[in-house]
Amino acid sequence: MSDRNQSQESPEKKAAGIYAASLVQDGDRVGLGTGSTVAYTIRELGRRVREENLSIVGVVTSFQSEAIAIEAGVPLTTLAQTPRLTIAIDGADQFDQNLIAIKGGGAAHTREKIVSMSADRFVIVSDPKKRSDVLSVPVPVEVMPFGKELAVRQLKELGANPVLRAAAKKDGPVITDNGNFVLDCDFGSIPNPKELAAKISQIPGVVEHGIFMNADEVVIGKTDGSIEILKK
Ligand SMILES: O=C[C@H](O)[C@H](O)[C@H](O)COP(=O)(O)O
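Predict the joint structure of the above. Result:
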């Protein structure tokens, strides 16, 4: 799971995040993901709004990215007002060579999926450690509290050992921005993520899983500040 608080500077994340902000053009409607990597993008967009008079509107995916965007001075809108976005930028917890990603380390994957799928172009920003030949990190699954037991049983039948995500500074579970629980589901290696995604989606009470198949490109930042871009 990624480092959720960006108290330590990461040159790789910074390189990817800042480069991705340069892909945003005047007039764009921008989906703003959640996490420590895209936080660099949001702050850089704020700088461009201030210093280059860049005219954009952003749609956030969490209370966290909302707070960062407001502090950075990125004008915000909602999907209700702006349902079609030009570009969405977001981090990931792991991705493979087909640009399939696992997201949701910050429990924001449901809104992230809605926002990224509302965009014409979806760019993932990452550091090199998240690249993997085969996806293998636990898949976050957001479930309605009412359906948790059934979801746990059916996720076990799919081969996972679901763990209810615990809050860090509160007793009990993490409650998502949508009022739900998150089950972290370790499936080991995932040779066929598309098939697994379809099976998880069929479980009643599952709001959304963290397998993303809609990335158009992944920007990987390097320690020396350079970047590598993988495209579909
Ligand atoms: O729910 C959180 C998101 O999917 C994040 O985009 C993902 O966990 C990556 O976060 P970070 O950039 O902090 O590694």
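The radius of gyration is 17 Å.
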